[in-house]
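Good day; I would like, with your permission, to put a structural problem before you. The record follows directly beneath this note:
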Amino acid sequence: MRSEVTTAYGLHHSEYIAFLHSLRSRQLLYSSLRSSTQEGKVKLCIFTNAPKAYGCKVLETLHIREYFDDENIFGVDDVMKFGVCKPEPLAFNKVLEGVGCTEPSKAVMFEDSMKNVRAAKAVGMRTCFIVANPDLHDVGDRPDEGDENVDVVLRDIGQMREMLSCLWRAEWDF
């Protein structure tokens, strides 16, 4: 029966399963963002090395724009005026300053780039490494889950509440 369902949509079984997984991941993402901002009073911020307008478009495409206040969206155009971008520590400090964070240890950087994880840790932030396809990284930026700068590893957004329950409790225990 499974193959009949998938062929009706022109998909192979593996493609269909991947599609279902992506739907599950999106629902978990929406649920995690909604509950962390409502229950945990977390302030969400995005910092991309792309222009701010592109970052906004990505948030809209993912249907998560509503969780990010305008003043908490930072692009390369926001930090280049200081002559920096990720992974330079000053870039992270400018974003922290922009969101009113005076204690970097109370900020968590979710990142799939080791160079950015290391830079965030260097300024005192906590880090959450998002496991991604290692083939998409430059040789010097290969994922290293065991790196001392990685505080938490997430393989799936569904692990966020389990691995980072402190975000809902507003207590830092990692």
Summary: The chain has two domains: 1-38, 43-169. The mean pLDDT is 80.
